[in-house]
Write a structure and sequence with these properties.
heterotrimer; A alpha/beta; B alpha/beta; C mainly alpha; A: alpha/beta; Rossmann fold; 6-stranded mixed sheet; 11 helices; about 40% helix; about 20% strand; B: alpha/beta; 4-stranded antiparallel sheet; transmembrane (chain C); cell membrane (chain C); ABC/ECF_trnsptr_transmembrane (chain C); transport (chain C); ATP binding (chain C)
Chain lengths: ~280, ~270, ~270
């Protein structure tokens, strides 16, 4: 159940005088059961790309095949509901979407829209809330009484409640403190363990190396590279400069060491890797 | 030593829960203090109390020897500039120049003097080329630099940044931190800087780090002193800066505290 | 992307762009006022010529002005149809119950259409060449005399400029919230009218909450930057009339005099 982009081009206002081309000739497969990170500088087209995953945007030319669902430019809005029941999307700062009288009601919104009976929707909502560690005592409160971190988790539960097979997250860690970021990464790992296909956009390379199995690099509206995080982060620095991306912190540190004449065996991508390599050097002296 | 900010016996409750009780903090003039804590630790509330946006139940706040009261609040505010977390929710003007002008208009600067002051402030933060741009065309980091310029134009003695980089991407964060360092260098002891953050790599830049949790001071000292308390930091939901966490994992550690630059230097000389 | 501004402003360097916004506002009002006294084809033609001249002076393609007419198309059509079928008089061309097509009716319909079009075109000249904040500044300046009767002009004007600054942001946010709720299965296109009306709640509540939070944050930021009394503030953007404005006013007076002349001489 993978996702395939087949020769996808996308322009805003296609066919009018104000047409703005955004995506060019995208041909890419997002593998099933894995966590895929979409990285690229601001303006590279990442947000436009992921909006094709649940039909918020449709390709101007080409098609996006999500499992057995084919998304083309002429698909009508009413046919997209079945897609959205299977592809859950968590936007940046998702706490901005909360609206209901209680937390539970808000999380039930998606399942009810997708046709769940009320009792089933309630059960699904409670399951999702537990999945993101929102404790039961908060379920009857107004979502607006919660802290920022709690609100975000309620919003995520709101997407998970309809039990989608595919989950897309746009900068899920934006604005979170270190503890919150750790919890977020744990949730992403949990989704993968549950067999979901996870796609996320991130600017934090340390998160990418921590949870991603697969990386897609975008630049200027096109896909310029694909591979495992190790493959991508071992490309040469010139390439990183052209796509305006950074290495994970350990890699940046190692680069600065290299510039001072201290060259390591290979490029470390995690702090623990870097420490191990430095310690091993000492032993060989 | 003149105290820029002096907080004595502060008591403040939020939603019937006590947040600060008998909280004390002194900040010397010219210091750069990083106030760190996880989200919900009370650090932003403290900033709002200092500026009189919230009122404490008990306790005294003095800014450069002036007691904060209902009567003095406007005068006290004139000595402090504050940059808030959300880049959009503090951008008042229709363009960059108009936003910097807003504060000048409030304090009734002559119209003829405004263009020069606006230019000076924008030059310090490197945004003078964006003078006529509208906010929705700017990135988060650019908006925060404009916020800094708006504050600088009023020539405050203290600048407080309340999680000013929390909503920015790594690039935006880097440019704001660079601008702050440049500022502190340029104004030296004339400027007292308070950065409120949960990002430890930012806290490294300060002269002094104060760790807060649940309205209480947990640690208070130089970066060297505070970052040697790895366990205490973890217990309070925080982490070490990258360089210090790395040093912790090394078998052969440096014999003193080092920031990133120093650690790189130390490691590179070791290998030669 | 999201270029639906209320009367879209297009930056430019024409003579009209450089006029003081107050001149343009006063000019628009005077033109509309005078033009509404038009009853002869000659005065309509004269008014139209004036508008065409003004449009040429803005140095913008007519296509942009045509775009300004499109939204009002149905309103114009509706009014024209009313005139066409319900104007009494002779000679009568068609007759069906209360509906009557008469020659005076046809003439009135054409005149009504011309009036509408000219008013829209003139207003479009104003909004096309004047940024929204200049319009707000101009309003504040022109409404100053109302301070004497305790109208809070300074506060209203500040509110207006801040509100205007947030229009692009609010439009973006509306789109984002709609995307989020659509992703959760919200649909405006299914269900009966009640269901569709209820569907707007998940859109409005977040927008309201967001707007309130924004207002609170802004208020804090404004206070911290020394804002106290809206009436005790100096201004960065000072409006001042120039020689171009003088010429513009002379042009307006000339237009009015000739208009009156035509009315009296072709009678």
């Amino acid at each position: 159940m993978a996702i395939n982009f087949e020769q996808v081009n996308f322009s805003y206002g296609a066919g009018t005088t104000l047409a703005q081309p955004i995506l060019h000739d995208i041909n890419v497969t997002i593998p099933d059961g894995q966590v895929t990170a979409i990285i690229g500088q601001t303006g590279s087209g990442k947000s436009t790309f992921i909006q094709h995953l649940n039909g918020l945007l449709k390709p101007t030319t080409g098609r996006v095949v999500i499992d057995d669902f084919v998304l083309t430019s002429d698909l009508k809005e009413k046919n997209l509901t079945s897609l959205r029941a299977r592809v859950g999307m968590v936007f940046q700062f998702p706490e901005n979407q909360l609206f209901a009288n209680t937390v539970l009601e808000d999380v039930m919104y998606a399942p009810i829209n997708f046709g769940y009976a009320k009792a089933d929707a309630e059960f699904a909502a409670k399951t999702a809330l537990k999945q993101v560690n929102v404790s039961e005592e908060l379920w009857d409160k107004s979502p607006f009484e919660l802290s920022g971190g709690q609100m975000r988790r309620v919003a995520m539960a709101g997407t998970l409640a309809s039990n989608p097979d595919i989950i897309v997250l746009d900068e899920p860690a934006a604005g979170l403190d270190p503890k919150g970021q750790k919890e977020l990464l744990a949730i992403v790992r949990g989704l993968k363990e549950a067999g979901k296909l996870v796609v996320f956009i991130s600017h934090q390379m340390d998160h990418v190396i921590a949870v991603a199995d697969h990386v897609i690099v975008m630049h200027d509206g096109g896909v310029v590279a694909e591979g495992t995080p190790v493959e991508i982060f071992n490309k040469d620095l010139v390439w990183f400069k052209t796509v305006a991306l950074d290495l994970p912190k350990a890699g940046q540190f190692a680069e600065q060491l290299r510039q001072k004449g201290h060259i390591l065996r290979h490029r470390p991508l995690l702090l623990t890797e870097l420490a191990t390599m430095l310690n091993e050097e000492k032993r060989h002296e | 030593m003149v105290k820029a900010i002096k907080i004595d016996n502060l008591k403040y409750s939020y939603d019937e829960r006590s947040l600060f009780s008998d909280f004390n903090l002194d900040i010397d003039a010219g210091q750069w203090v990083a106030l760190v804590g996880h989200n919900g630790s009370g650090k932003s509330t403290l900033a709002k109390l200092i500026l009189g946006l919230l009122v404490a139940e008990q306790g005294d706040i003095d800014v450069f020897d002036e007691r904060l009261t209902v009567e003095t609040v406007h005068h006290v505010r004139s000595k402090i500039g504050m940059v808030f977390q959300n880049p959009d929710n503090q951008f008042v003007g229709a363009t960059v120049a108009d936003d910097v002008a807003f504060g000048l208009e409030n304090i009734q600067v002559e119209s003829s003097e405004m263009p020069q002051k606006i230019d000076n402030a924008l030059t310090i933060v490197g945004m003078q080329e964006f003078k006529n741009r509208e906010p929705h065309t700017l990135s988060g980091g650019q908006k925060q630099r404009v916020a800094l310029a708006s504050v600088l134009a009023l020539q405050p003695k203290i600048i407080i940044l309340d999680e000013a980089t929390a909503m920015l991407d790594p690039d935006g964060r880097a440019t704001v931190m660079e601008t702050l360092q440049k500022l502190k260098k340029q104004f030296g002891k004339e400027l007292t800087l308070v950065t409120i953050t949960h990002d430890m790599d930012e806290a490294t830049l300060a002269d002094r780090v104060v760790v807060i949790n649940d309205g209480q001071k947990i640690l208070d000292g130089t970066p060297a002193e505070v970052f040697s308390q790895r366990k205490a930091l973890h217990e309070n939901g925080l982490e070490l800066p990258f360089a210090n966490e790395l040093a912790f994992h090394l078998n052969e550690k440096p014999n003193k505290y080092m920031d990133e630059r120093e650690l790189i230097q130390w490691l590179s000389t070791l290998n030669k | 992307m999201n270029n639906i501004m209320i009367g879209r402003f297009v930056p430019g360097d024409s003579w009209i762009h450089r006029l003081d916004p107050r001149t343009k506002m006063i000019g628009t009002f005077i033109f509309i006022f005078v033009m509404l006294w038009s009853t002869l084809w000659a005065t309509y033609a004269w008014s139209a010529a004036f508008v065409v001249l003004a449009i040429r002076l803005t140095k913008q393609p007519f296509r942009l002005y045509w775009d300004g007419l499109k939204p009002i198309f149905w309103l114009i059509l509706f009014t024209v149809v009313l005139q066409l079928f319900f104007t009494p008089g002779t000679p009568v061309l068609l007759h069906a119950g209360p509906l009557k097509v008469t020659i005076p009716g046809i003439i009135n319909a054409i005149y009504v259409m011309i009036r509408f079009v000219l008013i829209i075109l003139m207003s479009t000249i104003l909004t096309l060449t004047t940024p929204p904040t200049s319009i707000a500044n101009a309003l504040e300046s022109l409404l100053k005399p109302l301070k004497k009767i305790h109208v809070p002009v300074a506060e209203l004007s500040l509110m207006l400029s801040i509100a205007l600054r947030f229009v692009p942001l609010l439009m973006d946010e509306t789109q984002k919230i709609m995307n989020a709720q659509k992703s959760r299965g919200m649909s405006f296109s299914t269900g009966g009218p009640i269901k569709r009306a209820k569907a707007i709640v998940p859109l409005l509540i977040p927008l309201f909450v967001g707007a309130l939070q924004r207002a609170l944050d802004l208020a804090n930021a404004m206070e911290v930057r020394g804002f106290q009394d809206a009436t005790q503030r100096t201004k960065y953007r000072v409006l001042s009339y120039g020689s171009n404005d003088r010429s513009a006013f002379i042009g307006l007076i000339g237009f009015t005099i000739i208009f009156i002349g035509i009315k009296f001489f072709i009678k």
